[in-house]
Write a structure and sequence with these properties.
about 700 residues, alpha+beta
């Protein structure tokens, strides 16, 4: 029994050493294979149970290969930006298909020698495709997993085949939550602004009413750049207002405290040239509809109808000036005037106006509404008070374009007598009026554009009739009239923030940090064919954190912009990529713009040595390895990504040759056991002879 046992023990030694030699040969042949993990063969005894105290039953030996998957290889520098190596634990996630479907295998590798294939996908030398998280500008959704790059915020998401945004769950290995990186899809794309950050010092020593303007650039969904001008106005100590002028090509811009609370709003009209004399645009102001005809006529001859004749304008700018004056007048009639029914006016009627406690009497004003208006506006003692008079059908209005207070005195008679005046803003009888001094509509200097401010806390401002404003060639006279979704109307919503127009944008603490901020979003209604910035596409506006000096501040000194940034990008041709240690792939464009487009995750395992290896230098998870956990590179124990480098094989050729010699000697010794046992068996057989 022992003799045959010795023979089989020698055979087991041959088998074990053959296994070791196989591992050595694999290791040596893969000494230059990127990311290869060497295998070491250990041995364990095979013990036969001893049933005799006087005889020995030999057993043998078994080989136990052990893959050193968790051993770090040396990183070697390369000249390719898409070569990547891992320093630390973890694996790149790859798939046998560029766009995985059901049945396509996910695997894990350290072989980061990726190149761009014919279709633009990152593929390593073994034919496996890189998988990871695509990045988009954060749309302010709470469902999104956010990624902060510098001062900008992105999210792990992508647009599906139907154009809807799909949010990525960043710990699921599936075709839904992991996407390939395609270089061809990066080039030529544009990204709209989704987040705007601004920090500046507003001078503590500024006087109430001082203005400070700050233009910033944003990008629409088509990659077009546009300028938004923010104007800060000091309204009281430690309190500031802000308004945003809509960019060219936009219908309106709303500044919001949250998704539904509007702090400030403004509309805009950009004229492409002089309209024909057939236009009839309307604005609903304070619930009253005013019509602005591009023709000859007398303002107010018909109720709420005003005329601006383009034929009498020297150029488009002059026309816009005249139209803005009429629109501003309409606003003032609604918000800053008192009116009396003048149908029964008599030449003997007197008007007494009280300003700052002083009474001013205007006797025998006129025998008709038009005569009274002409007489008052040609009287310097009336106009020097900052007052103006106008008629609207049979009503006579007294109003002011400056901030002041005036009242109808007891010396007024006839239609001008106290008790006969109405405040259009409240539709109630009133003899006293305090005006706000706001310029509601104006032409932007150096442009053919008009802006108009919404200051109503109740009624929306509705603009209609844009499709009646045409150039002589039949094309729309305004950029807003070119809107393919609605070329006729748009709405500037009412100011619904608590406190209305008296609420401030920022209130500061005594140390110059913000105490309260009421502007956090900006909505832009575009007419240039791009997507509106509203809802989930609203622009997030960061002006600082409360009680911290990381944004807007109020300290002594001059107005000083500290920083501003936004995460949109205009159109640019793709020029290449850079990869950070956190796995973020940043696209480089030939216009100098850089934009994060992808993040490479790192998959970690509880027992990486328990993974099964496949051809192509990849591994798959098993029950022994556990399921993968996807992590951001460089965090939570995951290795960091090193661009333009590759991880070398962990095989040391000197060690392998030394092991080969030992293995060879062990194999020879095992063979000697077999030959010796064979000779002893021959002797045993010869006894019979």
């Amino acid at each position: 029994m022992s003799l045959y046992g010795a023979l089989f023990a020698g055979v087991s030694g041959l088998a074990a050493q053959s296994s070791a030699m196989g591992a050595i040969s694999d290791n040596i042949t893969n000494v230059n294979t990127i990311g290869y993990k060497g295998t070491k063969v250990n041995f364990q005894t095979l013990v036969t149970k001893q049933t005799s105290l006087t005889a020995y039953s030999p057993g043998g030996v078994q080989s136990k290969p052990r893959a050193g998957v968790d051993i770090q290889g040396l990183l070697q520098a390369t000249s390719s930006a898409t070569d990547i190596g891992l320093s630390g634990q973890g694996f790149f996630v790859v798939n046998e298909a560029a766009h995985p479907e059901d049945g396509d295998m996910f695997a894990y590798t350290r072989a980061g020698s990726f190149k761009v294939d014919s279709e633009g996908y990152l593929q390593n030398v073994s034919g496996w495709f890189m998988q990871g998280w695509t990045l988009m500008g954060w749309d302010n959704s709470t469902q999104a997993s956010k990624v902060t790059v510098g001062d900008d915020i992105y999210m792990k998401a992508y647009k599906d085949d139907s154009g809807d945004t799909s949010y990525i769950n960043d710990n699921i290995v599936s075709a839904t939550h992991l996407r390939p990186l395609n270089m061809n899809e990066v080039g030529g794309t544009a990204s709209q602004t989704r987040n705007l950050r601004m920090g500046a010092n507003l001078p503590n020593g500024a006087d109430v009413g001082d203005l400070f303007k700050q233009p910033v650039t944003i990008y629409d969904s088509l990659g077009g750049d546009a300028t938004v001008q923010f104007t800060w106005e000091k309204i009281a100590q430690n309190r500031w207002d802000v308004e945003g002028i809509p960019p060219e090509g936009a219908k309106s811009m709303h500044l919001k405290k949250d998704s539904s609370t509007i702090y400030s709003a403004m509309g805009r009209l950009d004229f492409n040239g002089l309209p024909q004399t057939t236009g009839s645009m309307s604005m609903t102001i304070n619930g009253a509809t005013y019509t602005f005809e591009t023709d000859t006529g007398t303002d107010g001859a018909t109720s709420n109808v005003m005329y601006t004749n383009p034929s009498s304008a020297a150029n488009t700018g002059a026309f816009v000036d005249s139209l803005a004056a009429d629109v501003n007048k309409a606003f003032n009639l609604e918000y800053n005037s008192l009116y009396a029914a003048g149908g029964a006016i008599a030449a003997a009627d007197d008007l007494e106006v009280v300003v700052d406690g002083t009474s001013y009497t205007f006797s025998n004003v006129g025998a008709s509404v038009t005569a009274a208006v002409t007489a008052l506006n040609s009287t310097s003692s009336f106009t020097s008070l900052g007052l103006k008079a106008t008629f609207n059908a049979n009503d006579i209005h007294i109003y002011s374009e400056t901030a002041m207070s005036f009242s109808i005195g007891t010396g007024s008679s006839g239609v001008f007598a106290q008790g006969g005046w109405t405040d259009p803003k409240t539709a109630a009888l009133a003899d006293t009026k305090t005006t706000d001094g706001i310029t509601y509509a104006e032409r932007l200097a150096g442009t053919n554009s008009m802006i108009f401010r919404q200051r109503d806390a109740t009624d929306d401002l509705v603009v209609a009739g844009l499709d009646t404003l045409d150039l002589s060639d039949g094309n729309p006279a305004t950029k807003q009239g070119q809107d393919i979704t609605n070329s006729d109307t748009f709405t500037v919503s009412a100011i619904n923030i608590t406190g209305g127009t008296s609420e401030d944008a920022i209130e500061f603490n005594g140390d110059g940090t913000p105490k309260e901020i009421n502007v956090a979003y900006a909505d832009v209604d575009w007419a240039n064919g791009s997507e509106d910035m509203s809802g989930t596409d609203s622009v997030g506006v960061f002006l600082g954190n409360l009680n911290l000096s990381d944004g807007m501040t109020q300290l002594n000194g001059a107005y000083q912009l500290a920083y501003w940034s936004q995460n949109g990008a205009k159109f640019g041709n793709f020029a290449g990529v850079s990869i950070g240690t956190d796995g973020i792939v940043t696209a480089l464009f030939d216009n100098g713009v850089t934009r994060p487009v992808f993040q490479i995750p790192v998959a970690t395992f509880v027992n990486p040595n328990g993974m099964d290896s496949l051809s192509g230098n990849v591994f798959i998870s098993t029950d022994n390895s556990g399921e993968p956990t996807l992590r951001t590179a460089g965090s939570a124990g995951a290795g960091s990504v090193n661009a333009a480098s590759l991880e070398a094989s962990t095989v040391d050729i000197g060690t392998e040759f030394t092991t080969m010699i030992v293995t060879q000697r062990a194999y020879s010794a095992a063979a000697k056991i077999i030959t010796t046992a064979d000779e002893m068996l021959d002797e045993l057989v010869n006894i019979k002879r």
